[in-house]
Amino acid sequence: MHIKNSIIFGFMMLCYWLSAPIIAQNGHDSFPIAWIGEWTGELLIYSGAGEQQRTQMNLNIQPIDTSDNYTWAITYGEGTDQRPYELITVDAQNGHYQVDEKNSIVLDLYHFAGKLCSRFEVMGNLLLITYEKVGNEIIFEVLSGKEDTPVITGGEKIGENEMPKVISFPIAIRQIARLAKKD
């Protein structure tokens, strides 16, 4: 009887461990529910020469009653540069979202293990944008640089191995903000 109870208990624990990620993903600690609120902090902008600029940044995320979407309102400076975007839920189970900038531009975002990522090109610049909720902060980061000056290496045969061609792109600007939730 003791072995049977141990097997049943073991099976129940295995079911719990396998379902825990699904429960966590759909629970109140998941994106975007745990991100709802008004977040504020200072945005720092760097180039290779060091810090170039500082400005206030706010991010306001609120549910929209009539849909599965959320406001994604970003404000830079002292309220002078407002961007009233909308976060669109495309496929929450697979972490696919979009930000509608309300000006014909819609950017894809992907949520993986607590980090929201977007990668795109605009006006000859490649951008990688991430948001990550760490404790009571959202860390926002942008890496950007021109796509017209790539460095191409590889593409040669070394012994019996054909090396793949690798294209790397410069990074000229890093922006980072630590946004704390307003009470």
Describe the structure in your own words:
The chain has 183 residues and is mainly β. Helix content is 14%, strand content 57%. The protein has one helix spanning 2-26; strands at residues 37-47, 50-63, 70-76, 81-91, 96-100, 106-112, 115-122, 125-134, 137-146, 151-154, 157-158, 161-162, 165-168, 173-181. The strands form three sheets. A ten-stranded antiparallel β-barrel has the order 1-2-3-4-5-6-7-8-9-14. A hairpin with a 2-residue loop joins strand 6 (106-112) and strand 7. It is globular, with a radius of gyration of 22 Å. The chain starts with a helix and ends with a strand.
- Order of helix and strand elements from N to C terminus: HEEEEEEEEEEEEEE
CATH C-level class of the largest domain is: Mainly Beta
- Count of discrete structural domains: 2
Structural class designation: mainly beta
Rounded Rg: 22 Å
Q: Sum up the overall morphology in one term.
A: globular
| CATH H-level superfamily of the largest domain | Calycin beta-barrel core domain
Low-pLDDT segments, ≥5 res? 1-28
Q: Percent helix among the residues?
A: 10-25%
Strand segment count: 14
Strands of the largest sheet, in order across it?
A: 1-2-3-4-5-6-7-8-9-14
Q: What is the distance, rounded to the nearest whole angstrom, between the alpha carbons of the first and last residues?
A: 54 Å
- According to CATH, what is the topology of the largest domain? Lipocalin
The CATH level-2 architecture of the largest domain is identified as Beta Barrel
How would you state the average pLDDT, rounded? 87
Largest sheet: 10 strands, antiparallel, barrel
Q: Report strand %.
A: over 45%
In DSSP terms (H or I, runs of 4 or more residues), the helix count works out at: 1
